[in-house]
Structures are given as C-alpha cells and as structure tokens.
Design goal:
It is a single chain. By secondary structure, the chain is α+β, with helices and mostly antiparallel strands. Helix content is 36%, strand content 12%. Strands 31-15-10-13-14-36 form a six-stranded mixed β-sheet, sandwiched between helices. A five-stranded antiparallel β-sheet has the order 29-26-23-22-30. It has a four-stranded mixed β-sheet with strand order 1-2-5-4, with no helix packed on it. β34 and β35 form a beta hairpin. α2 crosses α6. The longest helix has 32 residues. The protein is elongated, with a radius of gyration of 45 Å.
Length: 1467
C-alpha cells in the first residue's frame, strides 16, 4: 500500500441505497413486514417524537451514524432524538435484531493511494469485522513483521485523519433492541464468516495499538488546530479541577457567590443530559463555545481532546459485537464483566518496536446497557399511572448512543461510562432518558440496579469506593482540601507508574537493532494535559457538595435511627466552643451554642445548633423525645444530668413530666414554712361593688384617726410572664391586708412603704432591695415558698384564679404584713447600737457582711476610756460576750492590742468574757432572739489516727448526728495522707491559716443548717454534674493545696463500694501494690473496677463542708495566699445550697452503673453513666478536634454532625450494649435493606437451631419498619409565634429563587423568608448605625432599647441579599460592639490633630520606596537568563542575576535557548 494521503476532495461519494423492485418482497409469505430485514414496508407509521421540537431522522445510508466520530455534530444539527422513525420496545425477548451485514466497497490494493474507504475497511478488520473477501488475507497480515505492521497501521490512521472520512454507515436498526415492530424478540444474525475466536483475539492485539495511534493522531491534530486559532495548547483544562476558591475581587467582596459551573456540577444528574442547555463539551471545541451560556468566568472542565473519536470507535465496536455474538450482547457481557478494559501495554507492545505513549492513555469504559437484561418501563408514565393501548405498562424505546460518555472519578483513575438513550413513545409523555439516569435506575430490577457502582452528579460522578472513602475521610477529620490532595496524589502516583513503565519499555528497545531505523519516540504527556493523559480531579467544593447531597438523601434514615434509641437516663449539655470552630458565615459565628443530649449508653439522642442558649431555643427539641419514647415502646426518662441545675430544672421538668414522679423536693430553706393564721380570712373582690365597699371601710377608718397617726396597710402585686418569650404583662392582681383580712383585687395602686428600706434602717440587712423571701428569713425566721411555676406564669390574667394562685398571693401579702408588724412593733428591737443605748441591753455581734450572727452579749455597764491598751471611742463599745456562734470569726485588728486579726475563740477560753467591738457591728436583740440550743460538733483533728482498713463501713443512717462523720467515712478521705503533716508541725500548720478566710469559713459553717431525712426519698430527678461542681472553685494552678483539695473534694463526694474495694485490694495485695498507690498513679484502672456512690444530701453536706472549712484558709507556702478568696467562699455557699437540695446525691432505686464484663483477674468491669462527661468529653471535644479546621458552612456543618451522630451511635452504642466493637458498615440504608431482605427471604434458608443469631443482621432494628419520626436534628425551625412577633415572613421557594437570596439553605431550615444571621454585612452595620442615631428612635431613651421592637423594625428592611432577619439577642449582642466602635471614634476625634500628624509622618514619600524584587514562578512566561564568562582555562562560571549589560553581551554568546521551557542561557 502507498503511504500517500488522499485529500478530502478525493473521497468517493457514498453508495446510494438500492431501490426495491416492484411487487411483494421475496420470502414475504403474505406477511406485511416479512422479508424487509428491518426496513419499513409501505407508508411508515407515525411515531411520537422524543421531544416536542421537530426533529429530522438521519438518512438510511447517512455517513453520520450513532457512535461514529461525526455523530455529535449530527445530533446537534438534527435535534434531541435519534432514529425516531423506528421505535421499539427494549428487551432480549421483545426486540428483534435485524440480520444484516454491511458490505464494503471493493478497492484495489495496488492503487497509488489508499482511499478512505479502504482505510475504514482496514480498521474494521482490526476490530474483528473482516469482510469475506479480506478474510483470506488475515493470516498474511498477522505474519508480517511487527514494525512493518505498526507502520502500516500508523499510515492508515494518518490517512484516515487527513481525509476525515466517516465510518461505515448504519442506522438504529444495527443496535440490538431496535426493530420495526414493538413486540418481536431479537433474531440471531449469522456470524461473520471466518471470524473465529482465535482470529478475533489476534486482531484485538492490533486493535488496541490502532486505538493508541488514533488517539495520538487526533491529539496532534487538535493541538495543531488550537495553535492555529490562537488557543493556548499548553493550557490544560484539567488544572481547573484542582483550583480551590475563586480569588476574584467580586467573589472576595461578596458580590457573587460560587461560580455557577462549580456549584451546579454537584447537582443530581438529569434524566437526559442531551436535552439540557448546559451540555458536556469536548476539549477540542473553542473556548468561546465551552463558555457559552455558562455565565461564569471559568470554563467547565472538559473531556480529553481525543475522547470523542475513541468513544465513537468503541461504540462501533460494541455494536458490531452485539451483532456477531449469539447472545446479542457485548463481549464483555459474555465474559461476565461490565468493564471494557484495555490490555496491559506490556502485552500490546510485545511485537512493536515503535511504541506509542497513547497505549497508556487508553481509558477504561463501563458499559451500561440495561435494556439488554430487562425491559425498561417509562418512569414518567409509571409515576403518572399511564398505560399503552393494551393497558400494559409503557415501555421505553431505544434512541441511540449518547453524544459523549460520562466521566467518573475513581480512586486513582478516571472511568468513562458508555450508556444508551431511551425515549417514551406515549403521546402524553415523550420523555427521554439515559441509561445512567436515576429515574432509570429506580425502575430497574434491584439486582440489576445494584450493579451500577457509581454516584453521578450533574456532569461528573464518583465511584462507589471513592464516595465511601470521601465519607470516611470527612468523619475522621480529613477535610475537603486534604482529601483533594490525597486523591490527587493517588492519581498522579498511577500516572507516574505508567510513565516509568513507558520509559522502561523505551530503554529496553534502545538496544535493539531495529531501533536504529525507527523514528524518535513521543514524549509522555503531562498528567493534566488534555491532549494526552488528561488527568482530572474535581474541586474540594465539588466533593463537599457531593457529601452534602449524599447525607441529605439519607437524612431520614439517620434521624430515624437516632429517634428510635431508648433514653432512661440522659445527659444534657451545651457547648459554645463548637460554633466558634465549625459554623461561620463570612467570618461571623452563625450560632452561639450546640445542645446535645446523650442517653445511658453514650448514644447521641438529640443535637441541635441554636442562635442563643435560651431555653426556648432547644426545649422544643427535647419536648419531642418523650413522645418518641412512648411511640417506639421505650420507658420514660427517669433521670437527667445537667451542668446548671437551678436554671434547667423547671424547664426540664416541664418537658419531661416523668421527672416529677415520686419526687419530694427539698425546701429552699430549713426554716419553718410561713403559714397564714387560721383566724385570718382571704377574700377575692371580683365586682366593683365589693371593691368599693372594702375601700370605703378602710377610708372611713383612716378618716377617724388623728392626723399624726397612720393606718398600716400591706400590699403586693402580681403580673403574668411568658416563660418562653420572657414578655411581661401588665399588673394583674393587687393584694391588700387590713385588720386580719386579705383582699385580692384587680386595681392599680400608687405609693407604698418599702420593707427592704425599713429593714436596712433597722440594721437587719445591708441592701434595701433585699427580696421578700430573704426578709422573711432574716426578720421572721420563716421560709416563704416561691414556686417559679406559679410566680412566673401566665395564670394571673385568668378571670378565675386557681387555688394555688390564690394561696400564693395571700401568703405573699401576709408576709408583707407580718414583716411590717415586726419591724415597727418596737423602735428598740433590732435597732443599731448608739451612744444612747442603755447599758445591759442584749446585743448581737454581726459579721462584717451582716448576714450572720457571730456572738450574743450585753453592753458593759461602764464605758472605760481604754480597754486592754486600745482607746474606746464613740464608734467602739465593750460588751460582755455570753455565747459564741462562730469561733473562727476574726476580730478586727484595730480593736486588739496585738494589731493582728485573731479568732474570737482564742481571745478567751470560756464565756463570759469582755470584748471591744465596733458599734456598727452591734444591733439590739429582739425578744425572739436566742442562741441556738444545738451546737455543731468540732472538726476532727487532721492528725487523728485513722481506723484500720478492716473496720466495716457504718451505715449512714446510723450516724448519730447530722454534723458528725463516722471514722469509716473519714477513712475514705485519702487526701489526708498526701499532706504529710505530723504532730510536731501542728502549731505551724495552724499558724499559716489565713485569718480572713477563717472568718469566711466560720460564717459558711452556720450559713446552711444541716438536714436529716430518710434515704429512700427522691429529692430531685434533675441532678448536677459532679465534675462541674468541682470545677466551680477557681483556684490557681500553682497553689500548693490545689491538688490535695481536689482529691479531698473528690473523696468527699464519691464513696467507694466496700465490696468492690475489698476485691481490688486483695488483687493488689497479691501483686505487692497498695490501694493508695494505685489510686494516686492509676485512678482510671481503679475506678473502672470499683463502683462509687454519692451519699444522701445531709451526709454529703457535712462531708463537703468539712473539706471547705479545712482547706479554704490554708495558705500557699510560697505566695502566702489562701486557697479560697472571697469569690470562692461565695461559690462555696452556692455549692452547699445545691448539695443540701439534693442536686448531687444519687437517687435511690436508679442504676447508674452497667456491667461490662470481667478482666483477667476476675474483677468486674463497670461503666458509670453519672454526669455529663459523655457529652462534653465524648462528643463536643471530638467534634472540635475533627471538624474544627473545616471552616464549614451551615449546610456542611449540619451534614457533618448528622453523619457523626450516626457513626458515633453505632460504635459507642454497640460497644456499651454488647461489650464488642461494631463490625458493620455505616451505610445505614444498606443495613436496613439487608435486614428487610433477610426477613423476606427467611423461608429460603434452613432454620438455625441452637445457633447464636448473627448480630450484623438479625439483631438490627430496621427503622424502615416504623413510622417516620417527627423529631428534628440539626437546625430547628423558628416557631410561628416568634416569627409573627418579630415580623418575619415564612419561607417561600419562589421568592428565594426569584430574588436570588443568599444563604437559602439556612432560610429553608429556619422556615423564614430570609435567613436569620448575626450582624455581619456592611449594609447591616450601616442600618444599625442609622437606627441608633435617630433622634426619637429606639436608642433615644435613658436605658437600652426594647430589643423585641427593634428586631421587628429590622425585619422590614430584610431583603435576603444584604440585610437578613435578626433575633433580639443578635441586636443586643452587637450593641456592645457598636458601643466600643463609637468609643473608638470619639476617642480618636478628641485627638484628631495628633492622629493626622502621625498619619502624615508614617506615610512614605513619593519615590522613596525601593523596587520590590520578585522571583518569577517556574513555568511562567517570564524569561530567566543565566550567563557566564569563559576564562582562559575554558571553565564556565555560571552566575545569576539581571540581564548582562550591552558591553558584557559582547563578551558572551548564547549557548542554548530553551523555547519550550522559556529560558535563555548565555555563555
């Protein structure tokens, strides 16, 4: 054959179709369509078009055939459909294949040039389609020399490319499944003569080499075309997939969001890609065409330049194989594979000397032709329940090969899917689909659909393995950016391996004699060169969006699994750190708290992100849990652990009514409750007549009094409060007490006597704003109950008050009357001591804070001028002390001769004794004042020897006094041993105590009287966390007593179980290790084998009090500072109040430990569910560590947390329930399906009698078998009442799409018209400034504005693009920032002259700035010049720097100019 190429003009005209003769076709046998071989007879029937647009079917013998290189242009010119005139049903039993063989034109091999027809025939022979007249020459071709054969093949491809000829003509009838009638099955065409399997295998060797040559030729042709049109051939579109964020100014300023092509690329795929406006583009199309209609700055990543031609050849090969094979399927299907993989280049190049790098570029195809397995019903008609004429389901029909394959990214390579197009012939449908469409996969038989191993997006796709790695990586803290780099390294590693193989093959061929007569080899292309290897990796945004789509597609299964978990004991906690690391919008925190609830097995039961930490933000989430527990057959919640008991307890008991069962609350005071005397009456005045009658009686009594007299009248008011919104109502009730009658009336009142001010005047309290309950406790020594559910409620507005409200109001106003009566009954009672106070008056010595009584006594009968060397002034008085209540109280140093603070117990050994006091610390005693009869027992000595370990533990109920501790209880306090203080150091130890701290300790000792009650009583089912209690004492980490105090407080709180401790001690004793040593060095090992309990409140109160009193005054040996400061002592008071209320004691009858098995020593292993550590340490810290660096958007963060919740529950829940690690996958949807199939196919397997069920299947609870839960995880929608109150509109998808609002996901989740975000945009700051500067606006008053009204006004300006909705908390939080900014502006304005002068001094002078040197990037267009001089010895001295001067250039000569690398070298 000649190697001359035929110009395009020399291409012969395609053969014309042969006209059919007159009469009935031969072999018709009187059948209308017999003998036609697929050709329609007579007038063709009208068939519906796949689309509404008019289309033109290609001619029967057109050169533009589906699957050929010209097919894409034909589709774009003709329309969306292909071969619309020959519809058919699809399936091996219904579609009839035509027995037809294409005949090729006979071309003489002796002619001077090879015609395109002959070249086409040559390619078809290599594909296995040898014509009968060429089969005899097959052996001769196979016996030719390898180099000659390859050269001929290369010349053939070059001639084919130069002529631009098309492949053999064919129609849709050549594809299996396309016939002229709708119900006939495929017929078997005769095999190609002489095409034996061995011959086809031999030609396959040549075919892959021909493909490689064609790829290289098309790439060179496309490269040349790109250079001719000015297109940068070196620019690779594959690099675009590696780009990170858009760095354009508009994107940085927020004027545009993500580029449209990148954002839309992760959408779900369309039913038919070819009817979408945004079509996939091949790389050889002009850049203007690729960017047309995209509306984005960057072009969409394209397919390789050579892929269109290789795809056309592969489709032709598949068509021929389906005609040849008896199964009417491709050869890969016959071999049991979906993949069409090229042979390894080593086998292909065995007989080649001149190897081609394109052998390593050959792609792997995944052939997906589901119509060859099963008839495909139309998804659209199936959904609409449409039927055909025979009332049968409407089946799809073939429409040809797609224009392009679908690229899918795998672990280390890219795979291309070859599919098929279908259309529906129903006149009401006419939809088109592609075989990889989700709608098609949904209607396929499940075994067939599950064989499709890819997850497709709008234009790309990921393999199932890569998607699993993506999800696993994200959950283990590998963010999108590191994941992209990891996958890129996998791809480039494979590319480099192929490159090494190619060079190794060349190296071995260089030693052959034939290599001297061959041309130079072709360079291996770059990884991302679209003319060569064409590697491609999507962006991190693509992977992130794919992950979001995956998790959101299965969100209901994940949420269902969490909602079906039991919850008998839950731990609730919130974190402010997670939102700071995880969810941000333009650098601003979107949420302020993440609330999490964990059950007794450590499983996450609820999780939500809230804008604020207010109860109304997350309580609606918790309120749904009791309903789910009842709905799914679980027990009610018995116990709740939280870190803020006082604040959370009322709300938790409201949403969990089971927490009030069998609970007897501890009164907030140990005093006797205040009661209304039985002789008093309570009258409700409901009518105007009743009110006027009572008021007239009071006015008559007032008029009868002398002018100098007054009429005592007590009054109180109540009003409604919405607990969720915090909105206060108007005054709803006024209570009046007059002459032992309590009147409840709804009338306004002006003027009152403040009881707090009167008590301060009497010296009873220091603050005039002391609460009523505190006044009752200080003055009446009674407890006034203040139930928050009654005090703060909306029931005060009711026309008919409930009895509890009546009792509450009556008791309040009676307390006011009793206080007034006590405070005004005698002017000398409880009044301050003055110089007019008579000697012998009984007085009380108060502490400096005036909250406690230190001692009782009487004024001395004489007033000396000095007392024990200290002057007695008018502000001092001498008293005879009769009773000391707080022996540790320090007397002021200015009142003592030693000028040092000394405890009152050290001044004298016994009472009575004289003491000089400050007058301001003395008050007269009331008639009811008397020293307490019972005294607190003294503290045990720190050096008292402890009892032996063998002493049995005493029952706490047998303790004789509430203030005493048994020796066994003290034995538990191992912190004594760590002090290492012996008896000789006792005096020194006492000397280092801080006197002020001792006074605080003494006051604290008597602040909260102890209680004693039965252990069987449950005081609260809402308990505080032990570790939060210990952390409330803020102690310097460098203090010497910090760790001893922590150990002492721990041992006071938690008592080891005696049996468990004895078992551990026996094991330790056998190993020569002591109990104390293990507790100090390996506490985790010990406490996992020893259960601990928190004693009942009265015992716990005394234990903690002893620890605080002992360690609080101790000073550090270095700094001399006491362990407790004033804030710590105040915190100690609050801690003891909570301890006394039973907020930390273990409730009886509730199991807080679970058995986890036994260790090697036979010791039982336990797991404790006490406290909130499972939330903070088990979830919140893990979330921060894993996802803190992601800088995730709200959508990405919600999906990360949802997936994390599922993985955490599966791992932790399985381990804590069974003691074995979780062995299943985290695709819960697959496990649900597995469980369902297991149940449906149970009868097909033998019964497993006596065998343990497989936990991976049989023990799984399928959430699909239950009604979908209504619990919400992630983001809670804003309640409708809140929206209406703040003027927010509901979410509307049409508005969001029309106005192109930003943060649409947030708006949709919050169910608001636009998203609720904190102040973060310049427009919002300007709006805030405008509202703040209005003269008569919200900020014009003396106080802070009404934030609710301001938020309502703000909603009027929200547009969803620049201004967004705000909660009152958002505006209030930004107020502090706004005030700081205004303060900065005002401060600068005061010194404007100095500010401007400094600014002018710092500004550089014009022309003074030096030129900043910049090193050019490697591979850039900048030219780097390296030159050197030649010395006498001809040694080259290479120097770098700037270009040589003209004089220097005369001395040097260029030695090399690297045009490709764009470097110039000078010598």
């Amino acid at each position: 054959m000649s190697n001359a190429a035929v110009p395009p003009s020399a291409e012969p005209a395609p053969p014309q179709p042969v006209k059919r003769g007159r009469g009935r076709p031969r072999g018709s046998k009187n059948k209308p369509d017999a003998g036609t071989k697929g050709r329609p007879v007579g007038r063709p029937r009208k068939k519906p078009l796949p689309s509404a647009e008019p289309t033109v079917a290609p001619p029967r013998h057109s050169a533009k055939e589906p699957g050929t290189s010209e097919f894409t242009q034909s589709c774009r010119a003709a329309g969306h459909s292909i071969n619309t005139g020959t519809p058919c049903d699809i399936g091996p039993n219904t579609a009839r294949h035509e027995q037809r063989h294409e005949s090729t034109a006979s071309v003489s091999q002796q002619q001077a040039s090879i015609s395109p027809r002959a070249l086409e025939t040559r390619l078809r022979e290599l594909q296995g389609h040898t014509s009968p007249d060429k089969e005899n020459q097959g052996q001769a071709h196979r016996s030719e020399d390898a180099s000659t054969e390859h050269a001929t093949l290369e010349q053939t491809e070059q001639s084919l490319n130069s002529t631009g000829c098309a492949h053999t003509e064919s129609t849709s009838a050549d594809v299996p499944g396309i016939t002229t009638d709708d119900c006939q099955g495929p017929s078997t065409p005769p095999p190609t003569p002489g095409a034996t399997p061995s011959a086809r295998a031999s030609r396959k060797h040549d075919y892959e080499a021909a493909r490689a040559s064609a790829i290289l030729a098309h790439a060179e042709q496309a490269r040349a075309g790109g250079e001719a049109t000015g297109h940068d051939a070196g620019m690779t579109r594959g690099q675009e997939g590696a780009e990170e964020e858009d760095d354009s100014l508009d994107f940085v300023l927020g004027h545009v969001e993500f580029p449209a092509d990148i954002y839309e690329d992760a959408r779900p795929p369309a039913d038919d890609d070819e009817i979408e406006e945004d079509e996939p583009r091949f790389g050889n199309e002009p850049e203007s065409v690729r960017n047309a209609g995209s509306g984005c700055a960057k072009p969409r990543p394209t397919l390789p330049y050579w892929l269109k031609h290789d795809y056309a050849e592969t489709c032709e090969r598949l068509r021929a194989e389906m005609q040849e094979n008896p199964s009417r399927r491709p050869a890969c299907y016959d071999s049991g594979r979906f993949t069409l993989s090229p042979r390894h280049p080593l086998f292909v190049s065995e007989r080649l000397v001149q190897i081609n790098p394109a052998l390593f570029y050959l792609p792997e195809y995944f052939v997906w032709l589901p119509h060859l397995f099963h008839r495909i019903p139309c998804p659209g008609c199936r959904q609409s329940e449409r039927r055909d004429r025979n009332s049968s389901p409407v089946m799809l029909r073939c429409s040809g090969w797609p224009r392009a394959p679908r690229r899918v990214v795998d672990m280390d390579r890219n795979t291309y899917i070859i599919g098929y197009r279908y259309y529906c012939g129903h006149p009401d449908c006419r939809k088109t689909y592609q075989s990889w469409s989700p709608a098609i996969l949904a209607v396929l038989p499940p075994p067939l659909a599950s064989s499709f191993p890819f997850h497709l997006t709008y234009r790309n796709g990921l393999s199932d393995q890569l998607l699993a790695l993506l999800r696993s990586s994200f959950q283990r803290g590998v963010g999108p950016s590191p994941f992209v780099e990891m996958i890129r390294s996998f791809h480039i590693r494979r590319y480099e391996q192929l490159h090494v193989q190619y060079l190794e093959m060349i190296k071995t061929r260089l030693h052959l004699v034939a290599s001297r007569f061959t041309a130079l080899f072709t360079e291996f292309s770059d990884w991302d060169d679209l003319y060569g290897y064409a590697g491609y990796i999507p962006t991190e945004r693509f992977f992130r969006n794919v992950y979001d789509n995956l998790i959101e597609a299965h969100a209901h299964e994940i949420d269902q699994y969490s909602a079906m978990l039991p919850a008998t004991i839950i731990c609730a906690d919130h974190s402010h750190k997670v939102p700071k690391h995880l969810v941000k919008v333009e650098g601003e925190e979107v949420f302020s708290a993440m609330h999490t609830v964990v059950n007794e097995y450590g499983e996450c039961r609820a999780m939500t992100l809230t804008p604020t930490k207010a109860h109304n933000q997350f309580m609606p989430l918790l309120a749904r849990i009791p309903h789910s527990l009842r709905y799914f057959g679980h027990s009610d919640i018995q116990l709740v652990f939280t870190d803020n008991v006082r604040a959370d307890k009322p709300e938790l008991e409201r949403v969990f009514p089971s927490l009030l069962q069998d609970v007897e609350p501890v009164p907030s005071s140990s005093l006797t409750p205040l009661k209304i005397p039985s002789s008093w009456s309570v009258v409700q005045l409901r009518t105007t007549f009743q009110v006027n009658g009572r008021m007239n009686n009071i006015m008559d009594d007032l008029a009868a009094l002398p002018e100098t007299s007054s009429l005592p009248l007590a009054m109180d008011m109540e009003w409604s409060v919405d607990r969720e919104s915090g909105v206060f109502g108007l005054v709803a009730l006024i209570s009046i007490v007059y002459q032992q009658a309590i009147y409840l009336i709804p009338l306004p009142f002006v003027g009152a006597l403040e009881l707090g001010a009167l008590a301060k005047e009497r010296g009873i309290v220091e603050r005039a704003n002391t609460s009523l309950s505190d006044l009752v406790a200080h003055v009446l020594h009674r407890y006034l109950p203040k139930d928050d559910s009654i005090r703060v409620s909306s029931g005060w507005d009711n026309n008919e008050l409930s009895q509890v409200h009546v009792d509450y109001a009556a008791l309040d106003v009676y307390a006011a009357w009793a206080l007034h009566d006590m405070l005004t009954s005698s002017t000398s009672v409880g009044s301050p001591v003055t110089d007019m106070t008579l000697s012998g008056t009984r007085v009380k010595l108060l502490s400096r804070d005036r909250n406690s009584i230190v001692a009782y006594g009487v004024l001395a009968p004489d007033r000396p001028s000095s007392f024990q060397g200290v002057n007695v002034t008018k502000t001092r008085a001498v008293i005879n002390v009769t009773d000391v209540l707080q022996g540790g109280y320090l007397i002021r140093k200015e009142l003592l001769a030693t000028k040092e603070d000394v405890p009152i117990s050290r001044i004298a050994g016994a009472c009575p004794f004289q003491l000089l006091c400050a007058v301001r610390d003395l008050v007269t005693c009331t008639p009811g004042d008397a020293p307490p009869q019972t005294q607190v027992s003294p503290l045990p000595s720190l050096h008292e020897p402890l009892s032996s370990r063998g002493t049995p533990t005493a029952d706490p109920d047998e303790i004789p006094g509430a203030a005493e501790l048994s020796t066994d209880d003290m034995d538990m306090l191992d912190w004594h041993n760590s002090l290492r203080v012996d008896n000789s150091e006792a005096s020194e130890l006492d000397a280092v105590t801080d006197s002020a701290s001792c006074a605080h300790a003494t006051a604290l000792f008597n602040a909260v009287p102890p209680l004693s009650y039965q252990e069987s009583e449950i005081r609260s089912r809402v308990l505080g966390d032990i570790w939060h209690l210990m952390d409330q004492f803020k102690i310097s980490v460098h203090h010497g007593f910090r760790r001893p105090f922590a150990r002492a407080l721990r041992d006071a709180l938690l008592l080891p179980d005696p049996a468990d401790q004895a078992a551990v001690e026996r094991v330790l004793e056998s190993r020569g290790v002591s109990w104390r040593q293990m507790v100090l060095t390996k506490p985790d090992w010990v406490w996992r084998r020893v259960r601990r309990f928190v004693p009942k409140p009265d015992v716990l109160h005394q234990r903690i009090k002893h620890v605080l009193l002992t360690y609080g005054p101790f000073k550090d040996a270095t700094t001399g500072q006491p362990l407790f400061n004033d804030a710590s002592w105040q915190k100690a008071v609050n801690v003891l109040e909570n301890v006394r209320a039973g907020y930390y004691s273990d409730p009886p009858g509730i199991q807080l430990y679970m058995v986890c098995g036994k260790d090697r020593e036979g010791l039982t292993l336990y797991r404790c569910v006490r406290g909130t550590n499972n939330v903070e340490g088990g979830i919140h810290q893990n979330v921060i560590r894993r996802f803190g660096s992601f800088n995730a958007s709200p959508r990405f963060a919600v999906n990360l947390l949802r997936d994390y919740r599922l993985c955490h529950n599966l791992k932790v829940g399985t381990l804590n329930r069974t003691g074995m690690p979780y062995r299943g996958s985290y695709d819960i949807w697959m496990r649900n399906r597995l469980a369902s199939l297991r149940d449906q196919t149970a009868e097909a397997f033998p019964l497993r009698v006596g065998l343990i069920p497989r936990r991976s299947v049989d023990a799984w609870v399928n959430g699909d078998d239950y009604t979908r839960t209504d619990e919400v995880f992630g983001l809670l929608p804003v309640p409708e009442t809140t929206r209406q109150k703040l003027g927010m509109l509901a979410f509307h998808s049409d508005f969001a799409r029309r106005e192109k609002i930003r943060h649409r996901y947030l708006a949709h989740q919050q169910q608001t018209r636009v998203a609720i975000l904190p102040v973060h945009t310049p427009e919002e700051r300007a709006l805030y400034r405008m509202l703040a500067k209005q003269p008569a606006g919200y900020f014009a008053g003396p106080r802070q504005p009404n934030w609710v009204s301001l938020a309502t006004e703000w909603s009027k300006y929200a547009d969803g693009v620049h201004i967004f909705y705000k909660l009152p908390e958002h505006l209030k939080n930004y107020y502090k920032t706004w005030v700081e900014n205004r303060n900065e502006e005002n401060s600068v304005e005061q010194y404007r002259a100095a500010y401007e002068r400094l600014k002018s001094l710092l500004a550089p002078r014009a022309g003074a700035m030096p030129t900043i040197l910049t090193r050019p990037q490697q591979g850039s267009s900048a030219r780097t010049v390296i030159y050197g001089n030649v010395d006498d010895s001809a040694a080259i001295d290479i120097t770098g720097g700037s270009l040589p001067t003209p004089s220097d250039r005369e001395k040097v000569v260029p030695i090399c100019t690297g045009s490709s690398a764009e470097h110039t070298f000078w010598l």
